[in-house]
Specification:
The protein is of the alpha+beta class. It has 15 helices and 9 strands. Strands 1-5-4-3-2-6-7-8 form an 8-stranded antiparallel beta barrel. A hairpin with a 5-residue loop joins strand 6 and strand 7. Helix 7 runs antiparallel to helix 11 and helix 9 packs across helix 14. The longest helix is centred in the last third of the chain and has 39 residues. It is globular, with a radius of gyration of 28 Å. 36% of the residues are buried.
């Protein structure tokens, strides 16, 4: 079982910590600090794990097994923002716990995790407390010795000061402490973590070995996000722009993987969007990227988006139904409607979560990630990829927009009902693809692409409301059937169904004017 702790900290070095100098600067005069409480010295022994080509370190992730101190165990640190990380903890064991290995699988794939560095630290700790005795921050002086474990036997030693904010504390307090530390001659550490400093001082830093191998004409057996080459210059050709977009979406999937596994809000939706952006790019820019290569990858992305959609669709439907139920007068809520909705949502969520985690642990998903790595490392570029982006990319975007126009015209010319619902849904999907194509074109086309992106986003939102109503009515039919089978009244579900029909009708009535506004705004 793993638990998560949000860690907000800063590291410092300077004359006061050079050569392992004794003592922390006096922090008793820091505003808000009533006392500095000595917590003594703790001996810590941590072994850091990574792949041999240091994929975790290249992504600023750290995985360690540590003994000593109050939080002995396995720790995985995921970057959130500058100075902020989520630390996922698991109990001590001889091997990497499955709860943590899964969270780094998108980085390491099936590559072995090996001991990389051992850090032995003597930690001298002080607690900064307020007038009530509540902890404000923990300040420690760490005397560190690093030993390289993956060959070479390099060692290093240094001393640093670490200031960690107390749980729920105001981050501004760290600024106050920093002022005092700067007056003592300290400055922020150049290295973002002890591991990064150890790697730099005991051997080659993350990624350097991979670059050296590439310069010699060698290639890793399994290319990954830590080893594929990044462009050295800004995009110039049409192909450069498309590849930059592809690389960003591939990176998004890899980076979102741990959040999806942890059920972080909106992570499933964000990963699903990344898969759709990739598929959209394949379709929109088929004259730049060979469809014979991207087609099979697009099919796998569609599969992944479908698996992600099981959970995402549940989230959208639950939120919509809960809000709609809350808007009903109490007199129209007949029977245990809220309880049935909660049971229905929970059952769907539990099942979809288990299924999704199994997908992320499966060989098919890992094969897809490897295929994406290969795609951005050795892209199947066609002749048009070398062309002028303002010409080639603009032509592709205009072609997508023409398809949207045809579908909207078809929907507007049809009668209300299932056929129109299907036409509107298809128009929504094409509007989304056109929006993604315009986003890819932004660096090349500037304002025209920005205008089209905004227009397609608005149209997508309107048509999305309509499709949500269609899906909500299907869910209401299911709920009504369940209620009826249990001997409950289905009256309220009928009321909600009728309201959803009205919402869909309102969207259809607003569409002609919205489409006219879209035509005025969109120009590529």
């Amino acid at each position: 079982m793993a638990d998560t702790k949000r860690e907000i900290e800063r590291k410092y070095e300077g004359p006061a910590t050079e050569n392992g100098a004794d003592g922390l600067p006096d922090l008793g005069g820091v505003p808000g600090v009533a006392a500095v409480v000595d917590q003594g010295v703790t001996e810590l022994d941590a072994t850091y794990y990574d792949t041999r080509d240091q994929r975790l370190a290249a992504a600023s992730l750290t995985l360690r097994r540590r003994t000593g101190g109050a939080d002995a165990g396995w720790h995985l640190k995921l970057p959130v923002s500058d100075g902020v990380r989520d630390e996922i903890r698991a109990p001590l064991s001889d091997t990497v716990p499955r709860a943590l290995s899964g969270l780094v699988r998108s980085r390491v794939r099936d590559t072995e995790l090996v001991p990389l560095v051992r850090l032995l630290s003597a930690r001298d700790v002080r607690h900064l407390v307020d007038g009530s005795g509540a902890l404000l921050a923990e300040v420690s002086l760490d005397r560190v010795r690093a030993e390289r474990l993956d060959g070479g036997g390099g060692t290093a030693a240094w001393t640093e000061i670490e200031v960690e904010l107390a749980d729920g504390g105001d981050p501004a307090f760290l600024d106050t402490v920093e002022k005092r530390l700067r007056k003592a001659g300290l400055h922020r550490s150049a290295a973002p973590s002890k591991l990064a400093k150890a790697l730099a001082e005991t051997g080659e830093p993350a990624g350097k070995r991979g670059r050296k191998r590439a310069q010699k004409g060698e290639h890793p057996s399994k290319p990954g996000p830590a080893t594929d080459p990044a462009p050295a210059t800004d995009p110039v050709t049409a192909g450069d722009h498309v590849l930059a977009h592809l690389r960003a979406q591939r990176d998004a999937i890899v980076e979102l993987d741990p959040d999806v596994r942890r059920d972080v809000p909106d992570s499933v939706h964000s990963m699903r969007v990344a898969t759709r952006r990739l598929r959209g790019t394949f379709g929109s820019y088929a004259r730049i990227l060979d469809p014979a290569v991207t087609g099979p990858i697009g099919d796998e992305l569609k599969w992944l988006a479908g698996e992600l959609g099981v959970d995402r669709d549940r989230e959208v439907l639950t939120e919509r139904l809960t809000q709609a139920l809350g808007e009903l007068p109490r007199t129209l809520v007949v029977g245990p409607v809220r309880a049935r909705l909660r049971t229905w949502a929970h059952a769907r969520h539990g099942g979809s979560r288990r299924r999704l985690l199994a997908v992320l642990d499966g060989k098919r998903y890992l094969a897809l990630l490897s295929a994406l790595d290969a795609l951005v490392t050795d892209p199947p570029l066609l002749r048009a990829a070398a062309g002028d982006p303002e010409r080639v990319i603009a032509k592709a975007v205009r072609k997508d927009f023409a398809k949207v126009s045809d579908l909207v015209a078809q929907a507007l010319g049809g009668e209300p009902g299932t056929d129109r619902d299907v036409a509107l849904h298809e128009a929504r999907k094409k509007a989304k693809r056109t929006r993604y194509a315009a986003e890819t074109a932004l660096p090349a086309l500037g304002s025209p692409a920005a205008g089209l992106t905004k227009a397609m986003k608005a149209l997508q939102g309107l048509l999305g409301d309509h499709q949500d109503s269609v899906m909500t009515r299907e869910a209401l039919r299911e709920l009504a059937a369940l209620a009826h089978a249990a001997g409950e009244s289905s009256f309220t579900y009928g009321v909600l169904y009728g309201r959803e029909e009205q919402r869909a009708a309102a969207v259809e009535a607003a569409l002609p004017e919205a489409w006219r506004a879209t035509l005025e705004q969109a120009s590529v």
